[in-house]
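Figure 6 in text form: structure in, sequence out.
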């Protein structure tokens, strides 16, 4: 699944999440890669880590 919000792309696979953003200058910025983000009930360190709905 791929979710896009405010130039932040959140890609989910079966086991992982990858999040990156497009900066105002058009560059790609890596934000997160790791264990799949699945629950909004957790307290995430960054707003962009909230999972896709």
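Output sequence:
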């Amino acid at each position: 699944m791929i979710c896009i919000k405010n130039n932040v792309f959140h890609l989910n696979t079966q086991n992982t999440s990858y999040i990156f953003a497009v900066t105002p200058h058009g560059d790609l910025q890596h934000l997160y890669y790791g264990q799949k983000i699945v629950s909004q009930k957790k307290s995430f360190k960054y707003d962009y880590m909230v999972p896709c709905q």
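Caption detail: The chain has a mean pLDDT of 81.
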